[in-house]
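Data availability excerpt. The first of two example chains:
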Amino acid sequence: MQIFERMEKQMDGSSTVDEFIKVFLQAEAILKQKVLQIDKRLRDYQKQRAEAETKLEEVRKKEKINNYGIMEGSTLTVTILEAQNLQLEHLRNPLASVVLKLEEQVQNTQNSRRNENPLWNETFTFDVKTGVDDLQVAVLVKTTYDEIVVGRKSISLKDFKDQQRHEEWYDMRDENHQSMSSFRLKIAIQWINSRVRYLNDVLNKWEEYIRGQHEEKLEIANDLNELYTPFPILRPPNGPDEIERIRQRNNDLEDGRVKLNPRIVNSKQLHNANWATYIFIIQALMINFYRADHLSLCIPLYYFMVLLSSRLTPKALRFSKLLIAISVGNDILWLIVNSKHWWFSAHDPGDCRAQQGIKRFVILFSWLQLLLKGVLFTIYHKLDEVFA
């Protein structure tokens, strides 16, 4: 073990008990400190993820996509950082500025200081309606009487559909669209074309960070376990249980069996699902007084079982939707076979007036239950989309 390699050896190659205890405690303290640091990062990442989830729910309600496949209110953020090798034969250290044009919008930087490598670090925002037009960039130099264009560049917005911030050097071209030898411009660009997609990407990144921290914590837990293995008397209480809990958490992450985080689900969506299920179970019970429909009762019972056990996962919601689909087929088949006979049971001398009324009541409620199952399926589907 590494712990023995770190001990100071005596002349005969042995180590003292004090040296062993010192190194053992140091190793234990280092590993426990790492666990505390990971726990702190996990709390921070989970907080950031929860904030992104809240923003996503708000944006999802408001965002509208136009005919060009981008959201209304799409924006392009452009930062002109610096240029290199702005050298002109007839001008030494000229005053330079950058002009930007996109979809009839024009913005420009201030004149730089006289320098062959001018700095600007100015940021501009453009409203994007189509995303079809290129961003036009022109570098202007001020002369005694006028301003002249010394370099141009056309930048397609298609390169920024990932909505990430891109910072690159662009080689400038002259008026004849020929590449200039060494003159280039550094620009940072970010195009937000769908806040829903952008926030989904942010959530995926936070999930990756959280998964990475859990994996690192599992490695440290294994190191602690290895540290205590030769000396079980030194193992703290619940040590193996903690390692197994971390390992199970990572297995759940890999298998997609992560329990529902209450912050993931918008409270209104969960509230709607619960109330719709309450109404459905009452209606199903009323129908079951005269018509055996146990399959319909299984839907709310299964939903509340997984909800109360904190295992309302995408898989559970999809299984609930499958139960609804199967029960709808069963209802349609039952209505085809029985509705006409039951509705006109007034002509059946074997039925009293009360039985005739009950049968018609069941037929009406069976049709109403079909509609309610469609509503319930839609609500469960919207809740399932939260996990997408």
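And the second chain:
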Amino acid sequence: EKSIPNDPGFTLTLNQKMNYMQMAKAVAFQLKTDPLLLQFFRPQVHRQLSDQAIRCSNEGCIRDFVVSRSRLDAAPYLFYQRLNIPINEFENKRWFKCVFVSLKLKEEKEFTIYVDKNGMIEDLLNEARKEITFSKDSTRVLRLLEVMGSRIIDVHPIDKPVAELVSQKMYRIEEIRSDELKLDEEEALIPVAHYQKIMHNTFGVPFLLKLKDGERISAIKGRIQSLLDISEKELDKWSFTIVSGVQSPVIISEENDDQLLLNHFNIFPAKGIMFPRMGMPWLGLDHINKNPKRSRYALERAIKIHN
């Protein structure tokens, strides 16, 4: 099975002239499932990994779908995966891998969302609500973020077509805090990220922070401490900077209780620019990285189908 790392698979003896549905029924019988709840994938020619999906409307036969590995092992093989919806419906949808990040900035759950190909981000978020357990005082209002290299690079508006998203990416879904539901004219959300010494050494879970134009760093520091739930002693070891492009970070003076302006982050509410975009400056938290690394990827294994 495609979605199970190191799955040894199983073997079936099938006639190479069988069409798609005949093959699906035979595999479904082996797996004790509905043939419409299976999707099949061609294997890559030179590696034991899955390649393109085989559409259920394909008029070819098994010999058109499979590839033999070598002369020593001539058995052709395919990948499959189980579905939660019938394959004919599934093929009219787009899928997106998402991770839900809680208000405490913890990665709570990973899931895959299926949305109609002509749907909007709002439709994706509505489907995501079905996967999330909300607290009693939750706003239940979600937003979709794009994160790259432990930095938030985009906040996707709810009226954006899902066709403009990339299925291969992992998107982040998070709940909007109650104080962020309505922003005043002089307020906006700025991206914040952790890094160690060099601005490219970002790590951890980035987040959005509400900033009022001209707000002092002392007030911002207090909100960050509350949000991240860290001690004042630990926070005093951190430096606060404004990071923009390839330029050296600009240190924010805590001694002078510097003001932060929205235009420091290229945010101009009067022009309708209220959220982060690719290439925008961000608020940097410079401190030692104490977070372990993790990987979301796993090797795929094949199943064999003998003729």
